[in-house]
Amino acid sequence: MTPHAAPPRLIQIQFGRAALPGQRPARLNYHFAKSDSNFLSWPGPPGTVLAFAGRAFYKRGVRDPGQASRWSDLQSRVESSRIGRAAISGFVVLTLVAIAAINLPSSALRADLLVAGQPYLNAIGLDQGWALFAPDPRREVIGLKAVVRYEDGTSATWTIPNDDPVVGTYRDYRWRKWMENVIMDENRGLWRPAALWAAREEARPDRREFDVTLVRLEASLRPPGMTPIRGPWVSRAFFNLRLAGPAG
Fold this sequence. Notes:
Helix content is 37%, strand content 20%. It is of the alpha+beta class.
């Protein structure tokens, strides 16, 4: 009487690395029997089956039905149904219309479309307008400074960071986008926090701050080939925050 053979032990490969029994597998797993001839012929220990994993995937590997296949089945059911195809088509059309609307020139049509389109684009992360390049690009250089006055009559000026042009620009870019929003009249809610930030940055232990004034800087760009490339800076104060009363 032939004894029953023990079931082959399953080995789990996680991105080219063997998982120990009982270890939680990675998102994408491949199972194959330890009795596989490829496994037995592998000269290295199971913990270093990097090159061997590729052979196992092709010859004996199958995707874990508990993970990738569930999503695949759901996708197939959605794409094969009439309602699912209509929903996908509606999503694509709606997204294309919203992207086209945000890139239209300023008009009543653009404003009407973005009443619902802007929140939708914000939600899916496609709220990127390209008006910087066309059809009406900005014709001036803009800047921002905050003038902090102290009670002794002295003052200090805070500006956004301006690091080196190679690596520092990756940090500066976010500051410049923040500046573009702060100086806009429709973003008045940002003015007080910006003034308080500048006051905190320019705080001095030996001097008491009196007020902070936010100043918009603007210089007209000149046509290509002309030097200098821009005109003189024009300053316009647009917000003042009183921090303390005059010294008594």
